[in-house]
Amino acid sequence: MASTSARDASLAMGDAKDCGATTQQADEVEASPGGPLNVDGDAEKEVLDPVLVRFARSLGKGVADDLRGRAPHYADDWREVVRDRGRALTRIVAASVYIFLASAIPAIAFGEQLKNETKGKMTLYQTLLSTGMCGVIQSLAGGQPLLIVGVAEPIVIIYHFMDEYCTRTGTDFTAWAAWTCVWATIFLVLMAVTNICNGIKWFTRFCGETFGMLIAVLFLQQAITGLVSEWDTGFFGDFFVPKYWRTLNGTFGLLLALLYIWSSYTLSQARSWRLGVSWFRAICADYGFAIMLAAISGLSFALKINPAVPQRLEVLPLTESVWLTEGIYTIRYMAGVGVGQIFAAIIPGFVISVLFYFDHSVSSQLAQQKDFRVKRPSAYHYDLLLLAMMTLLCGLLGIPPVNGVLPQAPLHTKALCAKVRVPRVESTGSMSGVSGGVESTGSSASKRFIVYENRVSNFVQATLCLVLFGVAEYILKFIPTSLVWAFFAFMALESLPGNQFWARVKFVISDPKRREGWESVDYLSVLIFTAIQAVCLLGIWAITVWSGLFGISFPLFIMALVPLRQFLLPKVLRPDFLEVLDADETVEFPTDPTEPDVLHGGMESGFHL
Protein backbone atom coordinates (compact mmCIF):
# COMPACT_ATOMS: atom_id res chain seq x y z
CA MET A 1 0.00 0.00 0.00
CA ALA A 2 2.77 2.40 0.99
CA SER A 3 4.72 1.72 -2.17
CA THR A 4 1.61 2.22 -4.31
CA SER A 5 0.87 5.56 -2.67
CA ALA A 6 4.46 6.69 -3.22
CA ARG A 7 4.27 5.70 -6.87
CA ASP A 8 0.99 7.61 -7.35
CA ALA A 9 2.47 10.67 -5.69
CA SER A 10 5.49 10.54 -7.99
CA LEU A 11 3.28 10.32 -11.10
CA ALA A 12 1.21 13.23 -9.87
CA MET A 13 4.31 15.37 -9.42
CA GLY A 14 5.48 14.47 -12.97
CA ASP A 15 2.11 15.41 -14.45
CA ALA A 16 2.26 18.70 -12.61
CA LYS A 17 5.71 19.45 -14.04
CA ASP A 18 4.58 18.59 -17.60
CA CYS A 19 1.50 20.75 -17.18
CA GLY A 20 3.60 23.62 -15.92
CA ALA A 21 6.02 23.33 -18.81
CA THR A 22 3.15 23.28 -21.31
CA THR A 23 1.57 26.33 -19.70
CA GLN A 24 4.90 28.16 -19.77
CA GLN A 25 5.36 27.41 -23.50
CA ALA A 26 1.84 28.64 -24.22
CA ASP A 27 2.51 31.84 -22.31
CA GLU A 28 5.70 32.40 -24.28
CA VAL A 29 3.86 31.92 -27.57
CA GLU A 30 1.10 34.33 -26.56
CA ALA A 31 3.64 36.86 -25.36
CA SER A 32 5.57 36.73 -28.63
CA PRO A 33 4.81 39.30 -31.37
CA GLY A 34 2.03 38.15 -33.62
CA GLY A 35 0.59 35.69 -31.11
CA PRO A 36 0.11 32.00 -31.88
CA LEU A 37 -0.38 32.68 -35.63
CA ASN A 38 3.33 33.39 -35.89
CA VAL A 39 4.02 29.67 -35.60
CA ASP A 40 2.05 28.99 -38.81
CA GLY A 41 3.66 32.00 -40.46
CA ASP A 42 7.13 30.71 -39.65
CA ALA A 43 6.19 27.27 -40.98
CA GLU A 44 4.86 28.78 -44.20
CA LYS A 45 7.96 30.92 -44.51
CA GLU A 46 10.17 27.87 -44.05
CA VAL A 47 8.30 26.18 -46.92
CA LEU A 48 8.38 29.19 -49.27
CA ASP A 49 11.94 30.26 -48.64
CA PRO A 50 13.56 27.17 -50.22
CA VAL A 51 11.31 27.54 -53.27
CA LEU A 52 12.25 31.19 -53.69
CA VAL A 53 15.90 30.41 -53.09
CA ARG A 54 15.88 27.65 -55.70
CA PHE A 55 14.12 29.94 -58.17
CA ALA A 56 16.58 32.76 -57.54
CA ARG A 57 19.53 30.43 -57.94
CA SER A 58 18.12 29.06 -61.20
CA LEU A 59 17.88 32.51 -62.83
CA GLY A 60 20.28 32.62 -65.74
CA LYS A 61 21.46 29.07 -65.13
CA GLY A 62 20.47 27.94 -68.60
CA VAL A 63 22.34 30.84 -70.22
CA ALA A 64 25.42 30.16 -68.08
CA ASP A 65 25.34 26.45 -68.89
CA ASP A 66 25.05 27.23 -72.59
CA LEU A 67 28.06 29.53 -72.46
CA ARG A 68 30.12 26.97 -70.56
CA GLY A 69 29.13 24.28 -73.05
CA ARG A 70 29.82 26.26 -76.24
CA ALA A 71 32.87 28.31 -75.23
CA PRO A 72 35.39 25.44 -75.59
CA HIS A 73 34.20 24.85 -79.17
CA TYR A 74 34.30 28.47 -80.39
CA ALA A 75 37.76 28.26 -81.95
CA ASP A 76 36.96 24.86 -83.46
CA ASP A 77 33.88 26.38 -85.13
CA TRP A 78 36.24 28.59 -87.16
CA ARG A 79 38.97 25.99 -87.69
CA GLU A 80 36.46 23.55 -89.19
CA VAL A 81 37.24 24.87 -92.69
CA VAL A 82 40.66 23.16 -92.73
CA ARG A 83 39.30 19.76 -91.73
CA ASP A 84 39.64 16.66 -93.92
CA ARG A 85 42.30 18.08 -96.25
CA GLY A 86 40.13 20.73 -97.86
CA ARG A 87 36.99 18.62 -98.19
CA ALA A 88 35.34 20.67 -95.45
CA LEU A 89 36.21 23.94 -97.21
CA THR A 90 34.55 22.74 -100.42
CA ARG A 91 31.41 21.75 -98.56
CA ILE A 92 31.30 24.97 -96.53
CA VAL A 93 31.68 27.19 -99.61
CA ALA A 94 28.90 25.34 -101.43
CA ALA A 95 26.67 25.53 -98.36
CA SER A 96 27.36 29.26 -97.99
CA VAL A 97 26.21 30.00 -101.53
CA TYR A 98 23.17 27.75 -101.21
CA ILE A 99 21.99 29.27 -97.92
CA PHE A 100 22.65 32.78 -99.21
CA LEU A 101 20.23 32.15 -102.06
CA ALA A 102 17.78 30.40 -99.73
CA SER A 103 17.87 33.43 -97.40
CA ALA A 104 18.18 36.34 -99.82
CA ILE A 105 15.35 35.46 -102.20
CA PRO A 106 12.78 35.04 -99.38
CA ALA A 107 14.08 38.30 -97.87
CA ILE A 108 13.38 40.05 -101.17
CA ALA A 109 9.93 38.48 -101.38
CA PHE A 110 9.09 39.39 -97.79
CA GLY A 111 10.41 42.88 -98.42
CA GLU A 112 8.00 43.37 -101.31
CA GLN A 113 5.17 41.96 -99.21
CA LEU A 114 6.14 44.20 -96.28
CA LYS A 115 6.14 47.19 -98.61
CA ASN A 116 2.54 46.45 -99.57
CA GLU A 117 1.43 45.63 -96.02
CA THR A 118 2.94 48.81 -94.50
CA LYS A 119 2.13 51.10 -97.43
CA GLY A 120 5.77 51.67 -98.28
CA LYS A 121 7.02 52.39 -94.75
CA MET A 122 9.32 49.36 -94.95
CA THR A 123 10.80 47.81 -98.07
CA LEU A 124 13.19 45.09 -99.16
CA TYR A 125 16.10 47.26 -98.07
CA GLN A 126 15.04 46.80 -94.46
CA THR A 127 14.52 43.04 -94.78
CA LEU A 128 17.89 42.53 -96.48
CA LEU A 129 19.70 44.68 -93.91
CA SER A 130 17.99 42.94 -91.01
CA THR A 131 18.73 39.48 -92.42
CA GLY A 132 22.36 40.26 -93.20
CA MET A 133 23.24 42.24 -90.08
CA CYS A 134 21.66 39.81 -87.62
CA GLY A 135 23.09 36.87 -89.54
CA VAL A 136 26.58 38.25 -88.99
CA ILE A 137 25.84 38.73 -85.28
CA GLN A 138 24.53 35.17 -84.99
CA SER A 139 27.60 33.75 -86.72
CA LEU A 140 30.02 35.72 -84.55
CA ALA A 141 28.32 35.69 -81.16
CA GLY A 142 25.57 33.07 -81.42
CA GLY A 143 25.60 29.90 -79.40
CA GLN A 144 24.47 27.64 -82.26
CA PRO A 145 26.22 28.69 -85.49
CA LEU A 146 24.08 26.33 -87.57
CA LEU A 147 21.00 28.46 -86.80
CA ILE A 148 20.01 30.79 -89.64
CA VAL A 149 18.10 33.96 -88.76
CA GLY A 150 16.05 36.19 -91.02
CA VAL A 151 12.76 38.01 -91.50
CA ALA A 152 9.89 35.52 -91.65
CA GLU A 153 6.28 35.56 -92.82
CA PRO A 154 4.73 35.79 -89.30
CA ILE A 155 6.53 39.04 -88.45
CA VAL A 156 5.37 40.54 -91.76
CA ILE A 157 1.79 39.69 -90.80
CA ILE A 158 2.22 41.18 -87.32
CA TYR A 159 3.70 44.36 -88.76
CA HIS A 160 0.69 44.61 -91.08
CA PHE A 161 -1.65 44.62 -88.08
CA MET A 162 0.58 47.12 -86.29
CA ASP A 163 0.47 49.45 -89.30
CA GLU A 164 -3.33 49.21 -89.39
CA TYR A 165 -3.46 50.17 -85.71
CA CYS A 166 -1.10 53.11 -86.22
CA THR A 167 -3.17 54.32 -89.17
CA ARG A 168 -6.33 54.32 -87.05
CA THR A 169 -4.71 56.05 -84.08
CA GLY A 170 -2.47 58.45 -85.99
CA THR A 171 0.69 57.04 -84.39
CA ASP A 172 4.06 57.03 -86.12
CA PHE A 173 4.44 53.42 -87.26
CA THR A 174 8.22 53.08 -87.21
CA ALA A 175 8.56 54.69 -83.77
CA TRP A 176 5.74 52.59 -82.32
CA ALA A 177 7.26 49.46 -83.85
CA ALA A 178 10.49 50.36 -82.06
CA TRP A 179 8.66 50.55 -78.72
CA THR A 180 7.09 47.20 -79.55
CA CYS A 181 10.57 45.75 -80.04
CA VAL A 182 11.64 47.24 -76.70
CA TRP A 183 8.82 45.39 -74.92
CA ALA A 184 9.52 42.23 -76.91
CA THR A 185 13.14 42.47 -75.79
CA ILE A 186 12.10 42.68 -72.14
CA PHE A 187 9.87 39.62 -72.45
CA LEU A 188 12.54 37.65 -74.31
CA VAL A 189 15.15 38.46 -71.67
CA LEU A 190 12.77 37.26 -68.95
CA MET A 191 12.14 34.07 -70.91
CA ALA A 192 15.85 33.45 -71.33
CA VAL A 193 16.88 34.01 -67.70
CA THR A 194 13.95 32.00 -66.31
CA ASN A 195 14.99 28.98 -68.39
CA ILE A 196 11.70 28.77 -70.27
CA CYS A 197 13.52 27.03 -73.12
CA ASN A 198 13.41 23.89 -71.00
CA GLY A 199 9.86 23.57 -72.33
CA ILE A 200 11.15 22.78 -75.82
CA LYS A 201 10.71 19.09 -75.03
CA TRP A 202 6.94 19.63 -75.29
CA PHE A 203 7.19 20.92 -78.88
CA THR A 204 6.12 17.88 -80.88
CA ARG A 205 5.56 17.38 -84.58
CA PHE A 206 1.84 18.09 -84.10
CA CYS A 207 2.64 21.70 -83.18
CA GLY A 208 5.47 22.22 -85.64
CA GLU A 209 3.71 20.78 -88.67
CA THR A 210 0.50 22.67 -87.95
CA PHE A 211 2.55 25.87 -87.84
CA GLY A 212 4.35 24.86 -91.03
CA MET A 213 1.07 24.21 -92.84
CA LEU A 214 -0.24 27.58 -91.65
CA ILE A 215 2.76 29.32 -93.20
CA ALA A 216 2.29 27.30 -96.40
CA VAL A 217 -1.35 28.38 -96.62
CA LEU A 218 -0.38 32.01 -96.00
CA PHE A 219 2.32 31.74 -98.68
CA LEU A 220 -0.22 30.42 -101.17
CA GLN A 221 -2.70 33.12 -100.20
CA GLN A 222 -0.06 35.82 -100.69
CA ALA A 223 0.86 34.37 -104.08
CA ILE A 224 -2.75 34.48 -105.27
CA THR A 225 -3.33 37.97 -103.87
CA GLY A 226 -0.15 39.27 -105.48
CA LEU A 227 -0.87 37.78 -108.89
CA VAL A 228 -4.41 39.19 -108.85
CA SER A 229 -2.97 42.63 -108.08
CA GLU A 230 -1.03 42.48 -111.35
CA TRP A 231 -4.34 43.34 -113.07
CA ASP A 232 -5.25 46.14 -110.66
CA THR A 233 -2.25 48.48 -110.69
CA GLY A 234 -2.50 51.63 -112.79
CA PHE A 235 0.96 53.06 -112.13
CA PHE A 236 4.13 51.01 -112.71
CA GLY A 237 7.04 53.09 -111.51
CA ASP A 238 7.06 56.31 -113.53
CA PHE A 239 4.75 54.96 -116.23
CA PHE A 240 0.98 55.27 -116.33
CA VAL A 241 -0.55 52.11 -117.75
CA PRO A 242 -4.07 52.17 -119.27
CA LYS A 243 -6.53 49.37 -118.71
CA TYR A 244 -5.61 47.29 -121.75
CA TRP A 245 -1.93 47.37 -120.72
CA ARG A 246 -2.90 46.29 -117.21
CA THR A 247 -4.72 43.31 -118.73
CA LEU A 248 -1.62 42.40 -120.70
CA ASN A 249 0.56 42.86 -117.62
CA GLY A 250 -1.63 40.56 -115.55
CA THR A 251 -1.83 37.89 -118.25
CA PHE A 252 1.86 37.98 -119.09
CA GLY A 253 2.76 38.04 -115.40
CA LEU A 254 0.59 34.99 -114.76
CA LEU A 255 2.31 33.10 -117.59
CA LEU A 256 5.73 34.00 -116.18
CA ALA A 257 4.62 32.92 -112.71
CA LEU A 258 3.31 29.56 -113.88
CA LEU A 259 6.49 28.97 -115.88
CA TYR A 260 8.61 29.75 -112.83
CA ILE A 261 6.61 27.51 -110.49
CA TRP A 262 6.67 24.57 -112.91
CA SER A 263 10.34 24.87 -113.88
CA SER A 264 11.61 25.46 -110.33
CA TYR A 265 9.62 22.57 -108.94
CA THR A 266 10.78 20.30 -111.76
CA LEU A 267 14.42 21.20 -111.16
CA SER A 268 14.03 20.62 -107.43
CA GLN A 269 13.33 16.96 -108.25
CA ALA A 270 16.48 16.62 -110.36
CA ARG A 271 18.17 14.19 -107.97
CA SER A 272 15.74 11.50 -109.11
CA TRP A 273 16.47 12.06 -112.81
CA ARG A 274 18.25 9.46 -114.91
CA LEU A 275 19.62 12.10 -117.26
CA GLY A 276 22.92 13.86 -116.73
CA VAL A 277 25.78 13.25 -114.35
CA SER A 278 25.37 13.48 -110.60
CA TRP A 279 27.02 16.89 -110.13
CA PHE A 280 24.75 18.42 -112.79
CA ARG A 281 21.64 16.97 -111.14
CA ALA A 282 22.84 18.27 -107.76
CA ILE A 283 23.24 21.81 -109.13
CA CYS A 284 19.78 21.72 -110.70
CA ALA A 285 18.17 20.43 -107.51
CA ASP A 286 19.90 22.81 -105.11
CA TYR A 287 20.08 26.00 -107.17
CA GLY A 288 17.23 25.54 -109.63
CA PHE A 289 14.91 28.07 -107.96
CA ALA A 290 17.58 30.79 -108.22
CA ILE A 291 18.64 29.82 -111.75
CA MET A 292 15.06 30.02 -113.01
CA LEU A 293 14.50 33.35 -111.27
CA ALA A 294 17.38 34.82 -113.27
CA ALA A 295 16.44 33.02 -116.50
CA ILE A 296 12.76 33.97 -116.51
CA SER A 297 13.59 37.54 -115.47
CA GLY A 298 15.68 37.71 -118.63
CA LEU A 299 12.90 36.10 -120.66
CA SER A 300 10.46 38.77 -119.47
CA PHE A 301 12.30 41.37 -121.59
CA ALA A 302 11.09 39.57 -124.71
CA LEU A 303 7.93 41.70 -124.55
CA LYS A 304 9.22 45.07 -125.81
CA ILE A 305 5.93 46.80 -126.58
CA ASN A 306 5.80 48.80 -123.36
CA PRO A 307 8.71 49.29 -120.90
CA ALA A 308 6.27 49.16 -117.97
CA VAL A 309 5.03 45.66 -118.85
CA PRO A 310 5.61 43.44 -117.01
CA GLN A 311 5.71 45.34 -113.76
CA ARG A 312 9.07 44.99 -111.98
CA LEU A 313 10.36 45.56 -108.49
CA GLU A 314 10.58 49.25 -107.71
CA VAL A 315 13.96 49.65 -106.04
CA LEU A 316 15.00 53.21 -105.28
CA PRO A 317 18.66 54.11 -104.91
CA LEU A 318 19.87 53.32 -101.41
CA THR A 319 20.45 57.00 -100.63
CA GLU A 320 16.78 57.72 -101.45
CA SER A 321 15.33 54.70 -99.66
CA VAL A 322 12.79 55.19 -96.90
CA TRP A 323 15.22 53.63 -94.44
CA LEU A 324 18.05 56.13 -94.97
CA THR A 325 15.66 59.09 -95.14
CA GLU A 326 13.43 58.16 -92.19
CA GLY A 327 13.97 54.74 -90.62
CA ILE A 328 17.52 55.32 -89.47
CA TYR A 329 16.28 58.19 -87.28
CA THR A 330 13.77 56.02 -85.42
CA ILE A 331 15.30 56.71 -81.99
CA ARG A 332 14.64 60.42 -82.47
CA TYR A 333 10.97 59.78 -83.29
CA MET A 334 10.39 57.43 -80.34
CA ALA A 335 10.17 60.37 -77.95
CA GLY A 336 7.12 61.61 -79.84
CA VAL A 337 5.03 58.54 -79.05
CA GLY A 338 2.49 59.15 -76.27
CA VAL A 339 2.73 57.33 -72.95
CA GLY A 340 -0.55 55.54 -73.59
CA GLN A 341 0.67 54.24 -76.94
CA ILE A 342 3.97 53.15 -75.39
CA PHE A 343 2.10 50.94 -72.94
CA ALA A 344 -0.25 49.79 -75.72
CA ALA A 345 2.84 48.43 -77.47
CA ILE A 346 3.10 45.83 -74.69
CA ILE A 347 0.46 43.71 -76.44
CA PRO A 348 2.23 43.26 -79.80
CA GLY A 349 5.53 43.09 -77.93
CA PHE A 350 4.32 40.11 -75.94
CA VAL A 351 2.88 38.47 -79.06
CA ILE A 352 6.21 38.87 -80.88
CA SER A 353 8.11 37.41 -77.93
CA VAL A 354 5.84 34.35 -77.87
CA LEU A 355 6.22 33.93 -81.63
CA PHE A 356 10.00 34.24 -81.44
CA TYR A 357 10.23 31.83 -78.52
CA PHE A 358 8.38 29.18 -80.50
CA ASP A 359 9.82 29.79 -83.97
CA HIS A 360 13.40 30.43 -82.83
CA SER A 361 13.48 27.38 -80.58
CA VAL A 362 11.93 25.07 -83.18
CA SER A 363 14.35 26.32 -85.86
CA SER A 364 17.32 25.68 -83.58
CA GLN A 365 15.90 22.31 -82.61
CA LEU A 366 15.52 21.22 -86.25
CA ALA A 367 19.00 22.50 -87.13
CA GLN A 368 20.55 20.09 -84.63
CA GLN A 369 18.12 17.18 -84.61
CA LYS A 370 19.46 13.73 -83.81
CA ASP A 371 19.53 12.56 -87.41
CA PHE A 372 22.26 15.09 -88.20
CA ARG A 373 24.47 13.61 -85.47
CA VAL A 374 25.64 17.03 -84.33
CA LYS A 375 28.39 16.63 -81.75
CA ARG A 376 28.58 20.07 -80.13
CA PRO A 377 26.07 21.17 -77.46
CA SER A 378 22.97 23.31 -77.97
CA ALA A 379 22.49 26.85 -76.67
CA TYR A 380 18.75 27.48 -76.59
CA HIS A 381 18.76 29.84 -73.60
CA TYR A 382 21.73 31.92 -74.71
CA ASP A 383 20.51 32.18 -78.31
CA LEU A 384 17.14 33.43 -77.05
CA LEU A 385 18.95 36.07 -74.98
CA LEU A 386 21.00 37.08 -78.02
CA LEU A 387 17.79 37.24 -80.06
CA ALA A 388 16.43 39.70 -77.50
CA MET A 389 19.42 41.98 -78.10
CA MET A 390 19.04 41.69 -81.88
CA THR A 391 15.33 42.51 -81.58
CA LEU A 392 16.18 45.69 -79.66
CA LEU A 393 18.82 46.65 -82.21
CA CYS A 394 16.44 46.12 -85.13
CA GLY A 395 13.71 48.16 -83.47
CA LEU A 396 16.02 51.10 -82.78
CA LEU A 397 17.31 51.03 -86.37
CA GLY A 398 13.79 51.01 -87.83
CA ILE A 399 14.05 47.58 -89.46
CA PRO A 400 11.94 44.45 -88.87
CA PRO A 401 13.27 42.01 -86.25
CA VAL A 402 14.49 38.56 -87.17
CA ASN A 403 14.29 35.11 -85.66
CA GLY A 404 15.36 31.59 -86.51
CA VAL A 405 13.81 30.74 -89.86
CA LEU A 406 12.43 27.59 -91.39
CA PRO A 407 13.40 25.88 -93.56
CA GLN A 408 16.77 27.60 -93.88
CA ALA A 409 18.06 26.45 -90.49
CA PRO A 410 17.75 22.67 -91.07
CA LEU A 411 18.70 23.12 -94.73
CA HIS A 412 21.92 24.77 -93.58
CA THR A 413 22.83 21.71 -91.54
CA LYS A 414 21.87 19.38 -94.39
CA ALA A 415 24.11 21.38 -96.72
CA LEU A 416 27.04 20.78 -94.36
CA CYS A 417 26.50 17.02 -94.21
CA ALA A 418 28.98 14.75 -95.92
CA LYS A 419 29.17 11.05 -96.62
CA VAL A 420 32.52 9.64 -95.57
CA ARG A 421 33.75 6.22 -96.62
CA VAL A 422 34.72 4.04 -93.67
CA PRO A 423 36.78 0.94 -94.52
CA ARG A 424 35.04 -2.24 -93.49
CA VAL A 425 37.10 -4.72 -91.49
CA GLU A 426 36.72 -8.36 -92.51
CA SER A 427 37.46 -10.99 -89.90
CA THR A 428 40.30 -13.45 -90.62
CA GLY A 429 39.78 -15.64 -87.62
CA SER A 430 39.41 -15.47 -83.88
CA MET A 431 40.42 -17.27 -80.79
CA SER A 432 39.28 -16.82 -77.22
CA GLY A 433 37.57 -13.54 -78.03
CA VAL A 434 40.54 -12.13 -79.95
CA SER A 435 39.77 -11.34 -83.58
CA GLY A 436 41.90 -10.27 -86.46
CA GLY A 437 40.95 -8.63 -89.70
CA VAL A 438 41.93 -6.72 -92.79
CA GLU A 439 40.50 -3.51 -94.20
CA SER A 440 38.32 -3.88 -97.23
CA THR A 441 37.94 -0.98 -99.63
CA GLY A 442 35.92 -0.32 -102.71
CA SER A 443 32.28 -1.33 -102.86
CA SER A 444 32.47 -3.09 -99.52
CA ALA A 445 33.38 0.12 -97.67
CA SER A 446 30.56 1.55 -95.60
CA LYS A 447 29.48 5.19 -95.44
CA ARG A 448 28.67 7.38 -92.49
CA PHE A 449 27.31 10.89 -92.28
CA ILE A 450 29.19 13.72 -90.64
CA VAL A 451 28.36 17.41 -90.40
CA TYR A 452 30.89 20.22 -90.55
CA GLU A 453 29.78 22.40 -87.65
CA ASN A 454 31.23 25.83 -88.35
CA ARG A 455 30.59 29.57 -88.22
CA VAL A 456 32.12 30.43 -91.58
CA SER A 457 29.18 29.40 -93.77
CA ASN A 458 26.71 31.43 -91.70
CA PHE A 459 29.04 34.42 -91.71
CA VAL A 460 29.61 34.26 -95.47
CA GLN A 461 25.92 33.96 -96.38
CA ALA A 462 25.00 36.86 -94.08
CA THR A 463 27.80 38.99 -95.51
CA LEU A 464 26.55 38.26 -99.02
CA CYS A 465 23.10 39.48 -97.93
CA LEU A 466 24.71 42.75 -96.83
CA VAL A 467 26.48 43.00 -100.19
CA LEU A 468 23.14 42.48 -101.95
CA PHE A 469 21.69 45.21 -99.72
CA GLY A 470 24.29 47.60 -101.11
CA VAL A 471 23.82 46.70 -104.78
CA ALA A 472 20.07 45.97 -104.76
CA GLU A 473 19.23 49.01 -106.87
CA TYR A 474 21.37 47.69 -109.73
CA ILE A 475 20.17 44.06 -109.72
CA LEU A 476 16.72 43.61 -108.25
CA LYS A 477 14.98 46.18 -110.46
CA PHE A 478 15.05 43.65 -113.31
CA ILE A 479 12.90 41.07 -111.48
CA PRO A 480 9.17 41.08 -112.40
CA THR A 481 6.88 41.32 -109.38
CA SER A 482 4.92 38.35 -110.71
CA LEU A 483 7.99 36.16 -110.07
CA VAL A 484 8.07 37.35 -106.47
CA TRP A 485 4.50 36.13 -105.99
CA ALA A 486 5.34 32.93 -107.86
CA PHE A 487 8.18 32.34 -105.42
CA PHE A 488 5.64 32.38 -102.57
CA ALA A 489 3.68 29.65 -104.36
CA PHE A 490 6.87 27.67 -104.93
CA MET A 491 7.73 27.85 -101.22
CA ALA A 492 4.22 26.69 -100.36
CA LEU A 493 4.42 23.69 -102.68
CA GLU A 494 7.93 22.75 -101.56
CA SER A 495 6.87 22.80 -97.91
CA LEU A 496 4.47 19.89 -98.41
CA PRO A 497 6.85 16.94 -99.03
CA GLY A 498 8.02 15.54 -95.72
CA ASN A 499 5.13 17.05 -93.79
CA GLN A 500 3.29 14.17 -92.09
CA PHE A 501 0.16 16.31 -91.74
CA TRP A 502 -0.05 16.60 -95.52
CA ALA A 503 0.75 12.90 -95.91
CA ARG A 504 -2.10 11.98 -93.57
CA VAL A 505 -4.51 14.25 -95.42
CA LYS A 506 -3.73 12.40 -98.65
CA PHE A 507 -4.01 9.09 -96.81
CA VAL A 508 -7.45 9.93 -95.40
CA ILE A 509 -8.95 10.96 -98.74
CA SER A 510 -7.28 8.22 -100.81
CA ASP A 511 -8.92 5.12 -102.23
CA PRO A 512 -9.07 2.46 -99.46
CA LYS A 513 -7.67 -0.11 -101.89
CA ARG A 514 -4.60 2.03 -102.57
CA ARG A 515 -3.74 3.19 -99.06
CA GLU A 516 -0.22 2.54 -97.89
CA GLY A 517 1.38 3.08 -94.50
CA TRP A 518 0.04 3.46 -90.97
CA GLU A 519 -0.33 -0.29 -90.54
CA SER A 520 0.12 0.06 -86.77
CA VAL A 521 -2.71 2.60 -86.40
CA ASP A 522 -6.32 2.07 -87.43
CA TYR A 523 -7.93 4.35 -89.98
CA LEU A 524 -10.36 5.95 -87.51
CA SER A 525 -7.52 7.11 -85.24
CA VAL A 526 -5.67 8.59 -88.20
CA LEU A 527 -8.86 10.33 -89.29
CA ILE A 528 -9.55 11.79 -85.83
CA PHE A 529 -5.97 12.99 -85.34
CA THR A 530 -5.86 14.57 -88.79
CA ALA A 531 -9.30 16.17 -88.36
CA ILE A 532 -8.27 17.77 -85.05
CA GLN A 533 -5.10 19.11 -86.66
CA ALA A 534 -7.07 20.43 -89.64
CA VAL A 535 -9.58 22.20 -87.38
CA CYS A 536 -6.70 23.82 -85.48
CA LEU A 537 -5.09 24.92 -88.74
CA LEU A 538 -8.29 26.39 -90.18
CA GLY A 539 -9.14 28.08 -86.89
CA ILE A 540 -5.76 29.81 -86.58
CA TRP A 541 -5.83 30.76 -90.26
CA ALA A 542 -9.32 32.26 -89.89
CA ILE A 543 -8.20 34.26 -86.85
CA THR A 544 -5.16 35.52 -88.75
CA VAL A 545 -7.06 36.56 -91.87
CA TRP A 546 -10.58 37.52 -90.85
CA SER A 547 -10.52 38.82 -87.28
CA GLY A 548 -9.17 42.28 -87.98
CA LEU A 549 -6.66 43.64 -85.48
CA PHE A 550 -7.34 40.64 -83.24
CA GLY A 551 -5.47 38.60 -85.84
CA ILE A 552 -2.22 39.84 -84.33
CA SER A 553 -2.77 37.30 -81.55
CA PHE A 554 -2.33 34.27 -83.84
CA PRO A 555 1.05 33.27 -82.27
CA LEU A 556 -0.74 32.78 -78.94
CA PHE A 557 -3.04 30.23 -80.56
CA ILE A 558 -0.02 28.49 -82.08
CA MET A 559 1.47 28.16 -78.59
CA ALA A 560 -1.90 26.85 -77.36
CA LEU A 561 -1.29 23.79 -79.54
CA VAL A 562 1.34 22.63 -77.04
CA PRO A 563 -1.03 22.07 -74.07
CA LEU A 564 -3.69 20.82 -76.48
CA ARG A 565 -1.32 18.10 -77.63
CA GLN A 566 -0.06 17.22 -74.16
CA PHE A 567 -3.32 17.18 -72.20
CA LEU A 568 -6.32 16.87 -74.54
CA LEU A 569 -5.22 14.52 -77.30
CA PRO A 570 -4.20 11.71 -74.89
CA LYS A 571 -7.82 11.67 -73.72
CA VAL A 572 -9.12 11.33 -77.28
CA LEU A 573 -6.68 8.81 -78.76
CA ARG A 574 -4.93 5.76 -77.40
CA PRO A 575 -1.46 6.70 -76.10
CA ASP A 576 0.31 4.11 -78.25
CA PHE A 577 -1.49 5.34 -81.38
CA LEU A 578 -0.70 8.94 -80.48
CA GLU A 579 2.99 8.13 -80.09
CA VAL A 580 3.06 6.67 -83.60
CA LEU A 581 1.11 9.52 -85.17
CA ASP A 582 3.19 12.20 -83.45
CA ALA A 583 6.58 10.50 -83.40
CA ASP A 584 9.75 12.43 -84.14
CA GLU A 585 10.25 12.90 -87.86
CA THR A 586 13.23 11.21 -89.42
CA VAL A 587 15.27 13.19 -91.90
CA GLU A 588 15.46 11.42 -95.27
CA PHE A 589 18.86 11.26 -96.90
CA PRO A 590 19.51 10.05 -100.44
CA THR A 591 19.44 6.28 -100.43
CA ASP A 592 21.03 5.63 -103.80
CA PRO A 593 24.48 4.27 -102.93
CA THR A 594 25.70 4.69 -106.49
CA GLU A 595 25.16 8.45 -106.58
CA PRO A 596 28.28 10.29 -105.39
CA ASP A 597 27.93 13.23 -103.10
CA VAL A 598 29.43 16.22 -104.88
CA LEU A 599 27.84 19.39 -103.59
CA HIS A 600 25.59 18.76 -100.64
CA GLY A 601 25.82 15.40 -99.00
CA GLY A 602 22.40 14.22 -98.11
CA MET A 603 20.88 17.66 -98.55
CA GLU A 604 17.33 17.84 -99.70
CA SER A 605 16.44 20.79 -101.84
CA GLY A 606 13.27 22.69 -101.33
CA PHE A 607 11.63 24.70 -98.61
CA HIS A 608 10.32 22.35 -95.95
CA LEU A 609 8.61 24.24 -93.15
Biggest sheet, spatial arrangement of strands: 1-4
Distance between the termini: 97 Å
Please describe the biggest sheet, giving its number of strands, its sense, and whether it closes into a barrel. Answer: 2 strands, antiparallel
- Level of helix content? 55-70%
Oligomeric state, counting identical vs distinct chains: single chain
Shape: globular
> How big a fraction of the residues is strand?
5-15%
Number of helices: 24
List unreliable stretches of 5+ residues.
1-37, 425-443, 586-609
Q: Whole-number radius of gyration?
A: 31 Å
Pfam family, one: HCO3_cotransp
Protein name: Bicarbonate transporter
GO molecular function, one term: solute:inorganic anion antiporter activity
GO biological process, one term: monoatomic ion homeostasis
In short:
By secondary structure, this protein is mainly alpha-helical. The chain has helices at residues 2-31, 37-58, 61-70, 74-79, 87-117, 124-141, 153-169, 173-193, 205-229, 243-268, 278-299, 322-325, 330-334, 339-344, 346-367, 380-397, 408-415, 456-475, 481-494, 500-509, 523-546, 554-559, 561-572, 575-581, and strands at 149-150, 235-236, 239-240, 403-404, 417-422, 424-431, 434-440, 446-451. The longest helix is centred in the first third of the chain and has 31 residues, at 87-117.
